[in-house]
Amino acid sequence: MKKLGSWQSGIPSLASKNIQKCIVNAAAKYRIYQMGWANCTNGAGRAVGYAIEAECDHKDCDAQIDRGLAYVCGGMHDGGEHGCGGYFCYYHLVIGLCPDGQLCVECAAHAAIDDRVF
Q1: How confident is the model at residue 71, as a pLDDT?
Q2: What per-residue confidence (pLDDT) applies to 77?
Q3: Checking DSSP bridges between strand 47-55 and strand 64-67, what pairing results, if any?
Q4: Residue 75 CA: distances (Å) to CA of 5, 19, 59, 99
Q5: Residue 101: which H helix or E strand, with range?
Q6: Which member of 37, 44, 61, 87 has the greatest number of CB atoms within 10 A?
Q7: What is the rounded radius of gyration, in angstroms, for the C-alpha atoms of the chain?
Q8: pLDDT in tens, the chain (118 residues)
């Protein structure tokens, strides 16, 4: 039976550990960060991303959500073109009527009145 190399068996070799160490050092030196929306900051300085636990931003709601794209008004962390950028539970989001993906109840009402979106 052929013996598998450490890279084939999933056991990190000394070489791969050194490569990982170089990548971490380069990231620290050049301020390179991994891409992703798990833990970020939006334009207003608010912690956002699907790893950030939060409550619905609606004033009368305390539903537990995260600050990922699934809960943001406007479809993007800063609100996109038509949203406010707040984070709302599914009871306070209007989904499927807006090209931006979803709007909170208040932004959807303003968009319908202004006829900007629909």
Answers
A1: 94
A2: 86
A3: antiparallel
A4: 45, 37, 20, 9
A5: none
A6: 87
A7: 21
A8: 444 444 444 444 444 555 555 554 554 554 445 556 788 888 888 999 999 999 999 999 999 999 999 999 998 888 888 889 999 999 999 987 776 679 999 998 887 766 554 4
Q: Which two tokens stand for residue 16?
A: 């791969």
Which residue type does 11 have?
A: I
Query: What is the number of other CB atoms lying within 10 angstroms of the CB of residue 115?
Result: 7
- Beta-bridge mates of residue 103: 94
Q: What angle do CA 12, 51, 78 make, to 5 degrees?
A: 125
Any alpha helices (H) in the chain, and if so which ranges?
6-9, 14-30, 105-114
**Look-up: residue for tokens 């619905």?**
56
The amino acid at 46: R
The pLDDT score that the predictor gives to residue 9 is 47
Q: How far is CA 20 from CA 8, 13, 26, 40, in A?
A: 17, 11, 10, 23
